[in-house]
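Recall the central idea of this unit: under ordinary conditions, the amino acid sequence of a chain determines the structure it adopts. In this exercise we apply that idea directly, starting from the sequence alone.
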Amino acid sequence: MAAVSKTFEHVKAMILAAHEGVTPGEKVNFYNSWAETYDQDLAFLDYRAPSLAVSSISSHFSGDREAAVVLDVACGTGLVAKQMKRHGFGHFVGIDGSEAMLMLARESGLYQDLKQSMLGEGPLPVQKGLFDVVVIVGALSVGHVPVGVVRELCKSTKPGGHVCMTTRSNDTNVEYKAALERELKQMEAEGLWTCVEVSEVEDWERGVAEEEVGYISGAVYLYKKVAHCTTTKM
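Accordingly, the structure predicted from this sequence is:
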């Protein structure tokens, strides 16, 4: 039991460090150093966000999955693409700020293209209006990327395409989550997209903060870009 406890304490320390508000450069360096054990650490944490997001997409996507072009934003090592591949999707473009993470994503063989880019520091380095599905898992939280990034996700999506986003619902992320939801609803009011589904999930991942016992909660948001929307409106 001591070995298991020590391992969990190590993973907790890594997750807490990832949530700290630091400069973009320091954040990238942190993820570069974490890349090799990232998948194993998240598995130990029972991190369910990738599978929950992909389940939401799969439930509502009615097009040709093999032909669909998916933009995986903050793709990391490729956890989301691996899940989507199991659901029949076959064409992936990934974006991440960490070159070490991208190296592992490249080794997965799942992506047709991978781009290194810091989210929130300008437009996404992809063609606007190209993607059938745009997904971002894990990055929309305090200390990671600004809420305004969701507008870039919408710009990258085809009219009629889907955008899937996740965030945590624990105490340290409450203000960010509220700001995110205000932006999502504002964009809906502007006629940019419509809400397909919002799923509040209790067992999101094992809590790592001292006051968190058991699992923390999280949320999955699925939006559909309006068919008549053009990027000039944004």
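The helical segments are 2-19, 24-44, 49-60, 79-86, 99-108, 149-156, 174-189.
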